[in-house]
Amino acid sequence: MGGQACVFYGAAEFSRDTDIVLLAEPENIERLSRALEELRADCIAVPPFSADYLRRGHAVHFRCRHPEADGMRLDVMSVLRGVDAFEDLWERRTTVEIPPVERYDLVSLGDLVQAKKTQRDKDWPMIRRLVEAHRAQNCDNPTRVQIDFWMRESRTVSDLLELAETYPALLAEKAIGRPLLSLAAKGDREGLAAALADEQEQQRREDREYWAPLKAELAELRRKPS
C-alpha cells in the first residue's frame, strides 16, 4: 500500500520501507506475528503491536534483523484515512504474479492514490506520477472507467486541459463531483492552478485533523514509564 506498490504501478519511488494493510482479525494477527518472528522484526516505536491500536487507525512500525532483510522497516496499518474498509480494498485489489512463485496483492490504483492524499509533501508528486503513468499505459484505447479516474485524480493543469479538449461531454458530467473541471472546460489556466492548490490544501488539512488525536495518544504512550 506504499512505495513498493507505486513501483509496481509504474511510478518508481525509492522506498526504504514496506507498507502493508491487513484485516486486524485474530487469525491474521497470528499469521503476521509468525512472519515477524521469521524476519526477526522488532517493534521500534509506539504504539505496541496489537489489533486494538491497528483498528483505531494507528500504524505499527517494525525493523527487520534477518540477514536477507536486515534493516528493512515494515509499517503495518489496518485503517486508512479517507479509504474504504479492508474488505472493499481486498475486493478491488490488484494481484501481480512474478513467475515462478512470487505473488503480490496491491491496493487498487484508485485506493493507493486516495491513501496518498496526506499532509506530507512527498506524497503529492507521487499521486501525479501514478496518474500520469496510468494514462501513458492506457492512452491508446481507454475505457470509461479509466477516463473517469483521470478526471477525478489528475493533478496538473496541462493534463486537465487535455482531458477537457478530448472528452468535453464527459468532463461536463464529471464536473458535478469535481467543480474545478469546469475551469478546465473554460481553459482557465490560472483559476485551475489555484483550484488544484486549494484542493490539495483541503486534503492536507483533513489529514492533519485526522491524525491530531492519534498523535496525542502516541505522545501519552511515550510519557508512560516502560
**In terms of per-residue confidence, which ranges show pLDDT below 50 for 5 or more consecutive residues?**
none
Strand segment count: 6
Task: Give the percentage of residues in beta strands.
Answer: 5-15%
The Cα radius of gyration reads 20 Å
The total tally of domains equals 2
Provide the structure class: alpha+beta
The topology string of helices and strands comes to HEHEHEEHEEHHHHHHH
User: So what's the oligomer here?
Assistant: single chain
Overview of the molecule:
The structure is a single chain. By secondary structure, the protein is an alpha+beta fold. The protein has two domains: 3-108, no CATH class; 123-210. 54% of the residues lie in helices and 12% in strands. It contains eleven helices and six strands. The chain has helices at 3-8, 26-39, 51-55, 86-91, 109-115, 123-138, 144-153, 157-166, 168-174, 181-186, 189-223, and strands at 17-21, 42-43, 60-63, 73-77, 94-98, 102-106. The strands form two sheets. It has a four-stranded mixed β-sheet with strand order 1-4-3-2. A two-stranded antiparallel ribbon has the order 5-6.
